[in-house]
Write a structure and sequence with these properties.
Elements (H helix, E strand, L loop, with lengths): L2 H28 L2 E2 H8 L3 H13 L3 E8 L2 E8 L5 E7 L3 E7 L5 E8 L6 H18 L7 E8 L3 E2 L4 E2 L13 H9 L3 E5 H11 L9 E6 L3 E7 L2 E3 L29 H5 L1 H12 L4 H9 L3 H25 L3 E5 L7 H14 L9 E4 L6 H13 L26
Parallel strand pairs: 4-7, 7-10, 11-14, 14-15
Antiparallel strand pairs: 1-3, 2-3, 4-5, 5-6, 8-9, 11-12, 12-13
Helix pairs in contact: 2-3, 4-5, 6-12, 9-10, 10-11
Amino acid sequence: MSRRGAAAAGSQTALREANKALVVGTVQRYGGLTQVELAAATGLSQATVSTIVRELLAAGLVDTAVTTRSGRRAQLVTLARRVGLAVGVHVGHRHLRVVLGDFAHEVVAEQQLPLPYEHPSDTTLDRAALLVMELLERIGSGLDDVVGIGVGVPAPVDADTGMISVPGLLRGWEGEHLGQVLTKRLGRPVHVDNDANLGALAEATLGAARGYRDVVYVRVSYGTGAGIVLGGQVHRGFAGTAGEIGHVQVDPTGHICRCGSRGCLDTVVGANALVEPLRATHGSLALRDVVARTRDGDPGFARVVADAGAVIGSVVAGLGTAVNPQCVVVGGELSETGEVLLGPLRDAVRRRVLLNQIAPLEVVPAALGQRAEVMGALVLALRAADVPVRVEQEVPLEDGDDGPQEQDEG
């Protein structure tokens, strides 16, 4: 073979491998796409995508299944479960939730445990590690099957170090390299992020904000935080403090917040603030009691939740004016009160955000409910995983390939 022929063959091989990597990476990012969607997302021809999918299927790297799009049959492509599983962990203020899932974002095992107030990092991470091992044993898998672990915590996180970046917001967790601690316990790559960021990632990938490029996810729980997605990417800011709306001042003469400032949103709508005006008539209460009594129609509890929604909405409106999202998704425990919270929040946002006649801002409930944050942790781990794309079988990639094609989705 001449040098020119060898160079051409080498270029063709390199192009083939690059196209396969592009297809695998795109499926990995979205969890599953039809071949028509893959062609649109990658810019490759449908014939080329069909050939690559057939080759990856023969090598056991992808699975295919018949699905429907716009009422027409199509072939859905997902990474095969044999490629590996990932773990999602959500550490809340009063709970620990762990899921195992595959590259199609299908959960194969999950469990939740309650946590005591101000639980320390060492015992909580020990519990998380033990729970991961229990779930793997339950499905007959081991740590070798795990490609990565995502962890969400209710505080801003420096993604480079996996450390809480602001002291005082999660007492007893400062100074810990959380990813390193779990990696030492489980021997797998660990990625740590703020739970509101992960809720935003999950809702934008799998939930109510799927298809939008610019999204704000508001997590309303023991505290309030926001995750921001811009151009399809989570915006974390420097050292991970973007979206910390719980520490926006709303009452200059209010109580001192755990962050050290006065009158932050969390001091007005956090769990402690919600139950305080109800204790005189209802005794000792927890956030779950507020949610339950509001859902049961108690007018006093509903008043407190509605007032909180209006205040949160005024702060979210400021964020919305700054970043101009297409959609605001509301999640977290308090969102289970439905329109009692969401209605006043939506009204406050719409009153204060500049009206956009072309694309009015939508304010909607989270589609994933209380699983949004842990599913975001799972997606984080799956996207960060190294997936092999080189296979032994080579199929020529020709524009005229007449292999099986899915029907046009119109």
